[in-house]
Structure formats: structure tokens, C-alpha cells
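Suppose you are handed a protein chain with no further information: no name, no annotation, nothing but its sequence. What can you learn? This example shows the usual starting point.
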Amino acid sequence: MFGLIPKEEKFFAMFKDMAANIVTGGKLLKQMLDSYDDPQASQKKIKDVEHACDAITHDIIQKLNKSFVTPFDREDIYALAAALDDIVDLIDASAQRFIMYNVEKPTPEAKELAFLILQGCLAIEKAVSHLGEKFEHIAEHCVEVNALENEADRVCREAISRLFDEEKDPIQLIKWKEIYETLERATDKCEDAANILESVVVKNA
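A reasonable first move is to predict its three-dimensional structure. Written in C-alpha cells, the prediction is:
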């Protein structure tokens, strides 16, 4: 019978793998905007990371469906897997916008948002690293994610405000507004994952 009970560590290991992939995606996006010498190649690498995260999400759900014992609530495992997958989806969507709209050069605000996305991904990775250990350490990293999301929201708001003040070409205005909002939504997804992690802490304290 004991052989039929799955090891809890498998879920934690998969979440840690996923968080590491998200950080890789965040780094690739930041590098893409910082250098911008071959954005198509950078976007392809990000797409590969997105596919890897999809595969891990699928594995988590498959394992969840076959498991009798889970390390924390099933709905939280599913929600966390989906939230982590959403982060890399938005990183990929952000990179795609630069290719789709033939952006010649990223703005300083876009670079700042990419930096904040990466910081959010790093904080999520730190929070996830404590799963299966002392859950109370997770909370401090979740607070950091919330602060980063607030900062990204401010940068996005100010960038769009400046866009409406200064951009005369309506097509460029529409393009950049969508780019800024897509970048900012990636930090929203980091906050969603942090909220689920905080919920896990409360339930398992």
C-alpha cells in the first residue's frame, strides 16, 4: 500500500522547476529589450520556455489526478500551477508584441517594466523554493511581489499618460499602449501566484 502513496516532494520539485523556467523567461525578456539586436531569436527562446512550462503544468495536473495524498489542497495545487503558467504566457505575449508590431527600439519604460517582471519572477522563485519547508518564509517574498506589482502599475500608468500627451501617430499610440499593458499584466500574474502562495501559508500554518 505504501508504494501507492505518491511522494509529496514530487509536486514541490515540479513547482521549483516551473519557477526556474519562469525566471529564465524573465531574464530572456529583459535581455531582449536591453540589447534588442535580434528580437526574433530572443522571442523564439522565450517561446521554448513557454512550451516547457506548459509541459510541467500538464505533468502537475496529471499527477494531481492520480494522487491519493497531496501536500496541500488540490484546488491550490491546480491554481498555483495555472498561475505560474500564466506568468510565462504573459512574458511570451509581451515578447510577441515587439515582433508583431515591428518595434524598432524599446522605450525606457518598456525596459523598466521588463526589469520589474524579472524581479517579480525571482521573488516568486524564492517563495516557491520554501514549499515543503517552513511556509512562513514564503510570505516575505509574496510581500515583495506585491510591491513590485504596484511599482509596475505606476510605471505603466505614467508611460501611457506620457504616450497620450506626446505621441501624434494614433497607430503608434495604440501599439505602445497595448505593449505597456501586456508587460504590466505579467506582473499582475506574479501577484496572482503570490496570493495563492499566501493562501497556502494561511491554510497550512
